[in-house]
Design a protein that fits this description.
homodimer, mainly alpha, DNA-binding
Chain lengths: ~210, ~210
Amino acid sequence: MPRATKQSPERGSARLRLLDAATDIIRDRGFAATTVDDLCKAADVTKGAFFHHFASKDALGVAAAEHWATMTTAFFNAAPYHDPADPLERVLAYVAFRKAMITGNMAEFTCLVGTMAQEVYESSPDIREACGRSIFGHAATLEADIEAARQGRAITGNWTADSLSRHIQAVIQGGFVLAKAANDPECAREGMEHLDRYIRQLFHVREEVAA
Amino acid sequence: MPRATKQSPERGSARLRLLDAATDIIRDRGFAATTVDDLCKAADVTKGAFFHHFASKDALGVAAAEHWATMTTAFFNAAPYHDPADPLERVLAYVAFRKAMITGNMAEFTCLVGTMAQEVYESSPDIREACGRSIFGHAATLEADIEAARQGRAITGNWTADSLSRHIQAVIQGGFVLAKAANDPECAREGMEHLDRYIRQLFHVREEVAA
DNA sequence: TGACACATACCGACTGTATGGTATGTTTGC
DNA sequence: GCAAACATACCATACAGTCGGTATGTGTCA
């Protein structure tokens, strides 16, 4: 366990290392079951460093949610599902991308802010709000494409683009819950197939053979 | 705070009172943030009684999940959505029923086993499995109706009854996560409307004006 | 250029309390 | 009179948070 020493090149990175550790550990055990000592050990920093950067454990929770929002925004911005020229194709590509992301350990593909929101929605309003901003901010990134597709194809249905954008996130989050309960990621993938089928039906396009 | 005294008429009900308290408190704060003392206080029993009935806090978690399964099974068996003669009508009535259930406090309508599974899936396999049995056992109660509707209406789609039964639960669970993140139950209700629309589309039936 | 002030980033021992769990009674129904 | 159903006092530990300190960088002015 190499202590960060004087002249250490990582000096100044304790905050980031703590946030990265929080992302992993909280997804694994949840927020309440994650101790400050756990985080310090994983990030290889001391308790002094922790409370230098964060006023409290709750404050770290808020920062972790915001860090998650920043990371995921950059990640999804750089993802290839934006490539198609047709907005509906982009939405369907997003769903396919989310499905393809479901691999590896449960903690690797599940959602930090969904997990935290579920746990602390009542006990820690600050964390809950930060989680909400992350989830609904991400949902909103699909809204323009959905609306463009809706207008471009003259779809008239009893639903709105923002409602569908939230529903997409709900299916993803629900898939994670079932996957954890079953200890089987396939549950989450299944949900994405239903979601793909639903969206195609809303827009009256043929169902393709699942990729 | 009236201590349970000798000659108390509730004697013998400590276990049940603890399970009921666990149902409420864990849905509010999550499993890890719920202390044994919290449960004892809410159930108005002592720690001795707690550990007389449960070998550990984890054991209570398992029992709470099983108690939840028992309660919800009885509740849904008695619910009116079974009344329609047509199996598809019963499935749609189930979705409407679940939507109508979303009222009151968050902790009142959200799902104990979904919350717990999300939290302890990695750290407590016993609880995770009990949660899984509850969720997937409930999902399975819809499978026969879905399959009957599928055959009765000669539906040929690239999906199975058991997959759809799980997806229905996923949408419900995902709706709960978003509702908590937004602090707004309407998120969960929206999801049920999309689910209703999806099922109707799968079975090629007209969308009704939302109840 | 260098001395000084000041700020930021960290260290690690310490503390008060909360927590899960235990040991040992006491009461109650059969 | 025996076993189940409690009650009460207690314990070891783990936990979030504190505090006095040190190391390193940075701006400033003679």
